[in-house]
TrEMBL record:
Domain of life: Bacteria
Organism: Rhodanobacter soli
Listed transmembrane segments: none
Residue ranges constituting the Gfo/Idh/MocA-like oxidoreductase N-terminal domain according to the UniProt record: 6-129
Domain Gal80p-like C-terminal: 136-276
Protein name: Dehydrogenase
Family matches, as Pfam families: Gal80p_C-like, GFO_IDH_MocA
Amino acid sequence: MSNKRIRVGVIGLNPGIHWAASAHMPALAALPDDYEVVGVANTSLASAGRAAQAFGLPHAFESAQALVDSPDIDLVVVTVKVPHHHALVMPALKAGKHVYCEWPLGNGLAEARELADLAEARGVVAAVGTQMRVAPEIEHLRDLIASGYVGEVLSTTLVGSGGQWGGQTDAAHAYLDDRRNGATMLSIPLGHTLAGFRDVLGDFGSLSARLINRRKTAHITDTGETIPRTTPDQVLVHGALESGAAFSIHYRGGVSRGINLLWEINGSKGVIQVTGASGHAQMVQLSVRGATGAATELAPLMPPTSAHEGWPDDVVVGNVARIYGLIARDIRDGTRSAPSFRDAVALHETLEAIERSAAAADPSI
């Protein structure tokens, strides 16, 4: 493709605090030489029209199909709820369009595999939004481990809070409490974090898991309803990585008054700790500290300031913008540097292995 700006169509863009408006639009605006957002499709033409007017876009499409069929669109961005990803991404791939889909790619492994297979058959750039992988702190952490800062990795421990999946929610997010929708604490906050975890420490070998639902109901704050919860609010996984290092993971629903993200990597020569304000590690400022050799106390181990230069200061927007930067290069140069649909399949395989292990331990899950 030439150096002309890549024309973007967004499926699922609404003014206000919605994800596409708060993360994707400012991320795209930070790359004006690469992208031009030209159109939107929502659940209705009226909704698309309101979004187009709010963001100054030339096209409001009557349907998602009309957007993907338009010759004015090069890249289709899908930012809707997980249960709709497969139905919206498939037509975009069939139309030969490049795609950026939010994580999770599909509602389960089978959907993700089908999308990845089609994307490869069509030869398009198909990227998934596992943006923790491009956070400067995670790239720096990967380099530290590869360079032997901790020596041989012996073990790692990860503890995090999901934020949602506590005792209450609002109507807009109530779908997260129904596990059939594929938007669980396992798949979203832990799934995002595992994408970065795997980049740093490699893939999982053997594992054993438990999925426990301690909160059977959720209070809907804006309607006063009480609904049943079928998504586990406790995820426990332990075992060995392919490297042989031991690992232990515990994610909890809600927000803790204590630790909300702690990832420790212990090695033969040192230790590294990564902390943050939320178990959604892709959305918060990460702090990296470590000690190696004769050092007895942890010291800051943050990436150089140059890693942040030229990118938005906001953590969420900056990480999404980095994904878009990779996508632009892939489209123009024929590379495949952005997190891909095939990468997403590998992550879905890990989640399915966790679910299988948990089901074997407790068939009622």
